[in-house]
Amino acid sequence: MASAPASTTAPDAARARLVEAIVATGGEDRAAFQRLYRLTRAKLFGICLRICGTREAAEDVLQDVYLIIWRRAGGYEPGRASPITWLATIARNRAIDWRRANPVRAAAGVEEAADVADARPDAAAGMLDAEEGRRLHLCLDQLEPPQRETIRTAFFGGVTYAELADRRGVPLGTMKSWIRRGLLRLRDCLRDDA
Is this model's pTM higher than 0.85 or not? Predict the structure, then answer.
């Protein structure tokens, strides 16, 4: 019997390692928490940096993110969300909370920007990200254009629901409803693909 191609098993193996690390972290396993940190720090730092805008703020927020992960890992349910989605949501929400508490200041010029460390993820994590990204974008493309654009802007651009509502000229409740309905359709699509 021939084994499955490496391209289909590597993302599954990387996902399984993340699930295992989160579940073990929920049991207060410090070694698992260190593994989880090594596997996810680059991706979660990138999310924080994109939303916070400065390296210093992103580092502070990332520290908070891992404290939240340590406290909430026991409640993670592998069947409800992919591990990287669960982790990225925590990072995104914490970064947005920070941004709300710290109003945006004038941006510095490109020449004043700090260098970002090269924290490349390993090959398995890259393959997992690529596969999940492909599935996510295929499902996003199935949404109605307004829902697709607002979800992309909110989750990939780090724009708050209130800012989106202002941009679109709709009440905040309407914007939240659009995004919620879109996320429910997205969840169903991602479950169907799994």
Answer: no
